[in-house]
């Protein structure tokens, strides 16, 4: 059995992955953000950057217009280095077609179900 060639050809280059290219529908956006919220629970910089990726996918000028915020301000706030207000986050989420809904954490849901069953 021969070993598969896993080396890249000379001169080949990889381009960075850009999730924004794949976020076309509100369902895809919601799935992406839900995964980020679950995988990076509490890491606000990652969550903010993900929302920036979604805004980029929807077109930052469109999101700026829908939120009433400047395009430059949005780029800065959603860069992952900015510190957007909660109001800005909610406006951007609304502009891209998703909403923030609280739900119990998985461990808490299990405890709630156990209490109700008892």
Query: What is the succession of H and E elements?
Result: HHHHHH
Label the structural class.
mainly alpha
Radius of gyration: 19 Å
Q: How many H/I helical runs? A: 6
Share in β-strands: under 5%
- How much helicity do the residues have? 55-70%
The largest β sheet comes out as: none
What would the average pLDDT be, to the nearest integer? 86
Number of strands: 0
Instruction: Outline the low-pLDDT stretches.
Output: none
Give the termini separation.
59 Å
Q: Overall 3D geometry?
A: globular
Structure report:
The chain has 118 residues and is mainly alpha-helical. The protein contains 6 helices and no strands. The radius of gyration is 19 Å and the shape is globular. It starts with 25 loop residues before the first helix and ends with a helix. The mean pLDDT is 86.
In short:
It contains six helices and no strands. The chain has 118 residues and is an all-alpha fold.
Tags for this entry?
mainly alpha; 118 residues; globular
What topology emerges from the helices and strands here?
Layout: H1 26-39, H2 44-58, H3 60-67, H4 71-77, H5 86-95, H6 106-117
Helix pairs in contact: 1-2, 3-5
């Amino acid at each position: 059995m021969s070993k598969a060639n896993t080396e890249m050809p000379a001169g080949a280059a990889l381009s960075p992955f850009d999730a924004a290219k794949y976020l076309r529908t509100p369902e895809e956006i919601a799935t992406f953000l839900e995964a980020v919220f679950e995988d990076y629970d509490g890491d606000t910089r990652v969550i903010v950057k993900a929302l920036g990726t979604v805004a980029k996918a929807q077109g930052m000028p469109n999101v700026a217009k829908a939120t009433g915020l400047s395009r430059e301000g949005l780029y800065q706030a959603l860069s992952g280095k900015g510190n957007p207000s909660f109001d800005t986050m909610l406006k951007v989420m609304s502009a891209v077609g998703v909403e923030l809904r609280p739900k119990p954490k998985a461990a808490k849901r299990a405890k709630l179900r156990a209490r109700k069953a008892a």
